[in-house]
Amino acid sequence: RLEEERRKEEERLRREEEERKRQEEAEQRRKEEEEAKAAAKLEEELRLKAASDVEAAAELAALEAAKAAKEAERMSATGPPVSAQAVAAEEEEHAKKVEEIKEHAKEVVKEKAEREEKEAILQLQQADVMVHVAEEKGDDLHAAVAAQGGIAGVVAMSANHAASAEVQANFVGLMRDLCVSDEIAEEITAAGGVERIIDAAHAHYDVPDVMMEVADAIRNLTASDNIAAKVGEARGIEVLIDAATRHVTNEE
């Protein structure tokens, strides 16, 4: 009888151990499935962003390299031994792929920036033409920049393309023409337009087209005593003096 009880106890312990292992394996599979789903979701999100985001492209490349490394590790654990040379070659290939993805993303971002810059220049030029047409007809000048989100939208457009001398020249020229209206001149000032004009001058002090537009815009804006004070606070007069010194040989 004691032997029977011992066997029953051993059987019970064996079943408990098997059940524990099954539960552990099931839990491990569940975790792996969740990790795989999360990784797949992250990969999809990165793929969507990678077309225009250098960092996302780099993350995607790193993720793909990590996946490949994990798969290689799994295969080496279950398959024949992998030589150190083969591992090194695979790592080199992954690194090359990462760099290729990064370079491609940079090119995409560059092309996108160039396209947006051209669009901004075109919009500013079209708005300036509309200003002249509206002025000749005696219409409200606000309509000329309505499509760009008004004065604030144009100022923001300038800020978004601060590094482009051509955008800044067109922006400042538009501000120059708009501020013939005292009301709009005040709006330009309230929207930070004076500071943007001065910033454009600082960034592109060596570009005659920008500096000529800046000089004309400041001349028009300072017709108002309040705005003249604002220009002075932003050190706009110093910018003009510096520009005159730098471009002393420019007859225009």
Automatic annotation (TrEMBL):
Residues 87-130 form a coiled coil. It comes from the Eukaryota. ARM repeats lie at residues 192-236. Keywords: Coiled coil. Residues 1-39 are annotated as: Disordered. SUPFAM superfamilies: ARM repeat. Signal peptide: none annotated. This is Uncharacterized protein. It comes from Haptolina brevifila.
